[in-house]
Amino acid sequence: MIGLCARHILSVYGAVQKISRPARRKAQKSPCAGLRGVACGARLCYHGYIASHKNALSRPGQGGTGPRAVFRREKRRNGGNDMSEAGAQSAAAPRKKRVFSGIQPTGVFTLGNYVGAVRNWPKLQDEYECIYSVVDEHAITVRQDPAALRRQTRETAALLLASGISPEKSVVFVQSHVPAHAQLSWVLSCFCPFGDLTRMHQFKEKSAKHPEDINGGLLTYPILMAADILLYQTDLVPIGIDQKQHLELARNIAQRFNGVYSPTFTMPDGYIPQVGAKVMSLQEPEKKMSKSDANENAVVRMLDTPDAILRKFKRAVTDSDGCVRAGADKPGVTNLMSIYGVLTGKSFADIEREFDGRGYGEFKQAVAQTVVDALRPIQQEYARLLADRGYLDGVLAEGAVRAGAIARRTLAKVYKKIGFLQL
Question: What is the average per-residue pLDDT within 356-361?
Answer without folding.
Answer: 92
